[in-house]
Specification:
Blueprint lengths: L2 E4 L4 E2 L1 E2 L7 E3 L3 E7 L14 H4 L9 E7 L7 E11 L2 E6 L14 E6 L4 E5 L4 E5 L3 E7 L7 E2 L3 E2 L2 E3 L10 E5 L5 E12 L5 E3 L2 E10 L9 E3 L10 E8 L2 H19 L5 H11 L1 E6 L6 E8 H7 L6
Helix pairs in contact: 2-3
């Protein structure tokens, strides 16, 4: 299979199915992306808090692409295998007026520049206090929406985008619902570390993904993903999500989508059986609560539970 390369300059600033693809690939091929940080290069290692007030917001959260995947049709699922993720040597975290869960309580701009080395970062570089493990992932991975028009890259959508979900790092597999021919996949917004639901250490990123068209997962209506098992005894999860401006509806969507997944893959389960299984075995997580107007809530089911029902090799 061919390996393709996408440069930093090959990017766009909205989800819009009329944007011409920069690249056409076959299903199963691998692509290397070189991505700027979410500020689109407006913040540098030498920036201070004054850079926040000077941000051109229309240039934020650019994504590299779009990539046309041959064979992808509306109703299919695009499988995105995250093969490799590498950060720059620095990153930043900011309080941006108007953004965040407590924006009304933190109205002033603030900026922290981090040094990223040796798989960790420190809140205080001098005293080495506040050690943060580096666990990089891409905040933006999505496909074009079926609706005509231009849609912001800042909030998440049912087709992905700014899902800001820390569990889709190296070794993870993301599933996205295809709504347009070719899927038109794009990626960006590298994160060196982030807590569930929070903001991140933003950083330029080099990432490699493999894109595969799936015809056997028609129940994928929002992003689903599988987390890697990185060590003995560590659990791997299958996760469904709900994406909505109402957090309760996003939560209901995550559970409903897990029920749909279980009933499709394990047809011996009724919907009430699947609902009860979700209640006793799966965890609900707030994956993304920062980028208004939409939230991302996930339901994470241990794959050990799914394996006990039968093989999950189809996932």
């Amino acid at each position: 299979m061919s390996i393709h390369t996408v440069k930093r300059s090959q990017c766009h600033l909205a989800w819009d199915n009329s944007i011409p693809p920069i690249l056409r690939v076959k299903s199963g091929e691998t692509i290397n992306f070189d991505c700027l940080d979410a500020s689109n290069g407006q913040i540098t290692p030498d920036s201070d808090h004054s850079a926040i007030s000077q941000l051109v917001f229309s240039q934020l959260d650019q994504v590299n692409g779009p990539i046309y995947v041959e064979g992808a049709q509306p109703g299919d699922t695009l499988q995105v295998d995250v093969v490799r993720v590498r950060t720059a040597e620095w990153g930043w975290t900011a309080c941006i007026p108007g953004f965040g869960l407590l924006t009304d309580e933190f109205p002033e701009a603030a900026l922290k520049i981090w040094r990223l080395e040796g798989g960790e970062a420190y809140f205080d570089e001098v005293t080495k206090k506040g050690r943060i493990p580096i666990r990089p992932f891409m905040g933006e991975m999505g496909v074009a929406r079926g609706e005509k028009g231009s849609f912001s890259t800042i909030p998440p959508w049912n087709t992905g985008g700014n899902i800001d979900t820390r569990h889709v790092g190296e070794g993870a597999t993301l599933f996205l619902p295809v709504e347009v021919e070719g899927a038109l996949f794009s990626i960006g917004d590298g994160h060196a570390a982030q807590g569930d639901g929070g903001t991140a250490i933003e950083t330029p990123m080099k990432v490699t993904v493999r894109l595969t068209v799936r015809k056997d997962k028609p129940y994928t209506k929002t992003p689903h993903f599988v987390t890697p098992k990185k060590s003995e005894g560590e659990e791997s999860y299958y996760c469904t999500t709900g994406v909505d401006a109402d957090m309760r509806e996003a939560t209901r969507g995550a559970v409903r989508n897990m029920i749909d997944f279980i009933c499709a893959e394990y047809p011996e389960f009724s919907r009430v059986d699947a609902y009860m299984l979700c209640s006793v075995a799966a965890d609900l997580r707030l994956h993304e609560v920062v980028d208004m107007p939409n939230y991302v809530v996930g339901m994470m089911m241990p794959r050990s539970v799914l394996n006990s029902l039968g093989s999950d090799s189809r996932l």
